[in-house]
């Protein structure tokens, strides 16, 4: 975890350094021009620019308008303390929005903007990448024929210090924003403002979050319900975090093994009898071993006999694609970082953390952790030019603020994270509320088997399982970057929205 935080902090520092090193130009601007430019560098608490467009989705013409702008965050005295940037897509040939679903979209980090799902997944415009999600030039965007805009309006929200969102003053305490529960509190209030401004109180409402955004929307589900009386129809978790559900020790070590197996299968690093099977035939076997044998073995720790320890190590090696001795050297507990470095070490390559299909090259083969995150570097390569081109040129939002792909939100208060339990409580209180979880098999940061485990622990009684569903994809953290998965995952969202929107007059009751 420390290595991950250090990597993110280094990335943010590097981005800040790039901005700081812009070449100097001759100073020919007037005093008035300088004042105007300085104003543009500051966030506007309220602003909006409207554009119109249309797209064909599933053979149907869908006209829409886009609002790019900011709305305030209020303090306890009703004074604005921050401007939140959002991009709102509204289908324009709908006259009655009382039955029109509204999807509220967040990404994670926690210090990253809503850029990823906006121009990578559900929005009507997506970035140009190849069929597996790799960058291509020239950079740009294209229409997304899989967008869910045909069935729902969508608002993409950038929390404070992400995207173009900023506090209005350096004197505003960062504790107002930068923590699990502070984040949930102010964003719930902001959503209330948005719903009121755009007259969406009657609409069926959905939250979708990716990565840390799943922590955010899980907490929001209960905060919106209990503090703002806003009741949801659905929550979608894309590549979910642990949601505050504890899994230290043997559990933490064991639950990542099915992800190891998926990655090793992708890179053809498994034994031939496993490799010749389809991925979905291999994983149930690994999951069963994990639950029935691996967790109990790790729980026994040093009391495990040498013969049993070797037996377990051989199975872990068989399913992970790394050597028996390497497993034994780690006392059966193979760290994820070591796995990313070790799996293809003999080939001089590392595998990506967030998506293990991506390959990296380190300065030296020795070591216990890759030099960099190959997949994140690739994504920043393609997303950063595209979102700046889109917002500034296509949507014509004018500002001299840097668009923070990753912004300064640390120190972040991660204490008292009960978001998984928050979501369970919200579902128990609201019979309308349904849950959909989407995971990529090759995601090593928020792996698919941990997502399954979270669902099991969220619903220990089994009374909510008819409203909870999970699905896996043959890609990583951003499974939608793979062309095939982009189509399938959006279609599942479309089905989920239709299935969880009640028929007229259908009561919310048990």
Automatic annotation (TrEMBL):
This is Carboxypeptidase C (Cathepsin A). The keyword Protease applies. The keyword Protease applies. It holds the Pfam family Peptidase_S10. Residues 1-20 form the signal peptide. GO terms for biological process: proteolysis. Gene3D superfamilies: alpha/beta hydrolase (3.40.50.1820). It comes from the Bacteria. Residues 23-43 are annotated as: Disordered. One of its GO terms (molecular function) is serine-type carboxypeptidase activity. Residues 30-43 have a biased composition (Basic and acidic residues). Keywords: Carboxypeptidase, Glycoprotein, Hydrolase, Protease, Signal.
